[in-house]
Each structure stands twice: as C-alpha cells, then as structure tokens.
Amino acid sequence: MADLEFFFDPVCPWAWITSRWVTEVQQQRDYDVSWRFISLKMINKDCTESWYTPEYRATHMAGLYAHRVCDEVRLHLGNADVGALYTALGNAIHLEQRRDEIGADPVAFMAGLLAATGLPTEYAAHALDESH
C-alpha cells in the first residue's frame, strides 16, 4: 500500500503545484506515491454555471485526453511511469504553456510527451479511446 495517494488532473494548476511538493518529499523521505486520476471534466459534466465557459470545457477535455493515455500507461507499465508522464504533462502544460496543443491534436501531443519520457508512443492513440 502506498504512503500517499495523489489525485490529479493534468490541466489543474493547483494539483500540479502540489505534486511538485509531493515529489520533493517523496525523494527526501522515500515515500511511495500512488498517482491516481480525478477528472475535472467528469466532476463538472453537469455544470451550468456561467463561469464554466467553452474554454473551460475544452481545457477539461484536454485533461481527459491525457488521463486516457495515463491509464494505458498504468495498465501496461505501472505507477512509476504514470508519475513520469504526469511530470512531462505538467511541464508541458503549466511551465511551457502548451495547453492548447493537447486540445488541437491530442494524439500528436501525447506521442511527443511519451517519446520524451521514453514510453511507447503507440499509447498516444488512447487519448481518443473512450473505453478508458
């Protein structure tokens, strides 16, 4: 059993900021972290508030694309590789400001991140796989 379960949506800046602290503590204290998924798209699926604009919806969909690929990685490679892919996603989305790229072409975006992380690029096709 993991010392900590960390729930993330790749597009959430607050989860990203907190995850960097978690990875720092993980390295210093040798904690086992289980990287888990929470989808802002699913949480807000019935939201009709005026603040939930088409731009928010598109961003949340981008998070779902990324989660689908993370799930494929989890199923075939395991938790550590999910953590590595989440780090690559966070760097691209939050630090490099590439959030729009995932919405424009989720498969190409994810293939690039998978390649950069040393993970199988064929998993990128799962961005569009609704069975995840």
Give structural attributes.
mainly alpha; 132 residues; 2 strands; two-stranded parallel sheet; 6 helices
Identify the overall geometry. Answer: globular
Instruction: Please estimate the helix content.
Output: 55-70%
Main β-sheet, spatial strand arrangement: 1-2
Radius of gyration: 14 Å
The number of helical runs is: 6
Give the CA-CA distance, first to last residue: 24 Å
What fraction of the residues are assigned to beta strands by DSSP? 5-15%
Describe the structure.
35% of the residues are buried. With 132 residues, the chain is mostly helical. The mean pLDDT is 96. Helix 3 packs antiparallel against helix 4 (79-95) and helix 4 (79-95) packs across helix 6. The radius of gyration is 14 Å and the shape is globular. Helices cover 60% and strands 8% of the residues.
